[in-house]
Design a protein that fits this description.
Number of strands: 14
Number of domains: 2
Bound molecules: adenosine-5'-diphosphate, magnesium ion
CATH superfamily of the largest domain: Histidine kinase-like ATPase, C-terminal domain
CATH architecture of the largest domain: 2-Layer Sandwich
Structural class: alpha+beta
CATH topology of the largest domain: Heat Shock Protein 90
Strand content: 15-25%
Shape: elongated
Number of helices: 10
Largest sheet: 9 strands, mixed
Distance between the termini: 65 Å
Helix content: 25-40%
Length: about 325
């Protein structure tokens, strides 16, 4: 059974940055305003995330790493949110099967924090009291220690760290009210965004002023199609060899090649050959419109009326660019 669990977990968590994405989302779901991440050896030796959110109660330590344990489906209607968040209650369970996982957490009504460790998804003894502030520290050590082949197939620690850094950057830009930091363990922060910042400021902090100073705000809404889009995109004075596309659908970081390509094409009219924009976009739509069948690691999504939505976004963007080009 341990082997089956391990294989299933390895499909959900394919590299350290997948695990981190899930952990960041958990911290955000727990209403954290400060999220600090520390990494050793590209996340393979250590991946640690500390938040100041609601915390996990001592009594829940033994179940949070069981499959399908989630505190996030309280009402029946919430089932539709499965559409937004993909599989429910699988992240911690998966990680606990393929790494040494330790949870330290304190809720507001407990007088101290508790710490518990997991092996093969099982809590090793009752949580022990320990000093700590409200919130949660998730420590993931030796990721893939029991998956020899996966470990061999991974890229260099530097490349894994790069992926981790991209994930943190994107969440920090989207959640500009939350303060984020990322560092290699024992070193200085590579990323640090302040509390209650804004999207443009965080783009400046992370990607630099060259991009930030050329940003224009973009928004478009369509009731008939049931979506809203908001974001910041570079104007036609900016161009880069590689397209930067940060897309969130219902606050989850996703890929949508179709939308990406169409947006790039809009810019192709204005930018020099082989040049591309920077685009940060947040789409919100009825969760039941987003494809339920996306697997957590297959970040590529499809949604209802995709062609019409893409068309509407692209048309609005075209109008916006025309307006900013005189
Ligand atoms: P899901 O997020 O889909 O519910 P997870 O496996 O990611 O499933 O997490 C399981 C449960 O553990 C969550 O529903 C939540 O109750 C709790 N949890 C995980 N991380 C945190 C955190 N950082 N702060 C508070 N609770 C957490
Ligand atoms: Mg989760």
């Amino acid at each position: 059974e341990a082997v089956i669990n391990r294989i299933a977990a390895g499909e959900i968590i394919q590299r350290p940055s997948n695990a981190l994405k899930e952990l960041i989302e958990n911290s955000l779901d727990a209403k954290s305003t400060n999220i600090q991440i520390s990494v050793k050896n590209g996340g393979l030796k250590l991946l640690q995330i500390q938040d100041n959110g609601t915390g996990i109660r001592k009594d829940n330590f033994d179940i949070v790493c069981e499959r399908f344990t989630t505190s996030k489906l309280e009402k029946f209607e919430d089932l539709s949110s499965i559409a937004t968040y993909g599989f429910r209650g699988e992240a911690l369970a998966s990680i606990s099967h393929i790494a040494h996982l330790t949870i330290t957490s304190k809720t507001s009504d407990e007088i101290c924090a508790y710490v518990g460790s997991y092996i093969d998804g099982k809590l090793q003894g009752p949580p022990k009291p320990i000093a700590g502030n409200q919130g949660t520290i998730i420590t993931v050590e030796d990721l893939f220690y029991n998956m020899f082949v996966r470990k061999k197939a991974l890229r260099s620690p530097a490349e894994e760290y790069q992926k981790i850094s991209e994930v943190v950057s994107k969440y920090a830009i989207h959640n500009a009210n939350v303060s984020f930091s990322l560092k290699k363990s024992g070193e200085n922060n590579d990323i640090r965004t302040p509390l209650n910042s804004n999207h443009v400021e965080n783009i400046r902090i992370i990607y630099g002023n060259l991009i930030a100073r050329e940003l224009i705000q973009f928004s478009c809404e369509n009731d008939a199609l049931g979506f809203k889009a908001n974001g910041f995109v570079t104007n036609v004075n900016y161009s880069s060899k590689k397209m930067m596309f940060l897309l969130f659908i219902n606050h989850r970081l996703v890929d949508c090649q179709n939308l990406k390509k169409c947006i790039d094409l809009v810019y192709a009219t204005y930018l020099p050959k082989n040049s591309h924009p920077f685009v940060y976009m947040s789409l919100e739509m009825n969760p039941s419109y987003v494809d339920v069948n996306v697997h957590p690691t297959k970040h590529e999504v499809h949604f209802l009326n995709e062609e019409q939505v893409v068309e509407a976004v692209v048309t609005a963007l075209e109008t916006k660019l025309l307006g900013s080009n005189n």
